[in-house]
Amino acid sequence: MINNDFFRFTPFLKAINLSYNYDLADLPLGISRLVSLQHLDLSSTKIKELPEELKALTNLRCLNLGNMYDLRRVPRRLISSFAKLRIFRLSYSSLELRPVGDNVLSDGGEYLVEELLCLNYLNTLSIHLKGSCALGKFLKSQKLHSCTQFLRLEGLEESLAVLSLTGMKHLYKLTIYSSGLDELKIDYCSGEIEKIRESHCFHSLGKVIIYDCIKLRDMACVCSKPQAY
Asked: Which residues form the signal peptide (predicted)?
């Protein structure tokens, strides 16, 4: 357990790595005193929510919330308050499809996408989205496309058009977890394969994970054409 008073004596601390502290369920509020903090890694902890007080960390450049399976709440306007943020990772969390009060993890991550669009210096992104609406809002932003390295999609309905992901030139890992998805769509007749090849997309893609897609009947469109990657 970290005592809040500890942070009184470290006002110029610039980096904190609390990752893999599996007993850490609450973030000490005293961390908000570290106004010089630039790097905060909370990945693989049991923290359930981020406190409003973190808005004081105006110099934050890297925030890692990866593999925080217990994370239930991130206050609205918290992420967007980190105006200098360059790296943001949220690979797994407890997203809700329905609106749940003052929380960017509700509405499948739509609110989160809105806040990320406010970050002018963001250049590295890992994100988890749930539902077609959140994905649709994300796909409208070329800025977010260009800096995404990890994308986890959940709760999609019916089909996903591969061409809609072609702007993600730095995407390394794509995870699709969706029992409602029945089609990964590539339209050969309209020349989508050629468009994908000419756009030089997916050159960074190293891993694709598709699971619990029990309605997905055919992936031949992906695996039978080598040039489709």
From this structure: none
- The pLDDT value recorded for residue 6 is 78
> In the predicted model, is pLDDT for residue 215 greater than 90?
no
| Most confident of the following: 7-21, 36-50, 175-189 | 36-50
HSE, side-chain direction, 13 A CA sphere, residue 121: 13
- Sorted by where each starts, the structural domains of the chain and their CATH numbers stand as 11-138+151-155 (3.80.10.10)
Q: Look-up: residue for tokens 């997203």?
A: 95
Distance CA 38, CA 225 (A): 45
94-101 long-range contacts (CB < 8 A, ≥24 apart) are 94/69, 94/70, 95/128, 95/129, 95/130, 95/154, 96/130, 97/130, 97/131, 97/155
- Average pLDDT (92-113) is 81
| CA 199 to chain centroid | 24
Q: What pTM was estimated for this model as a whole?
A: 0.85
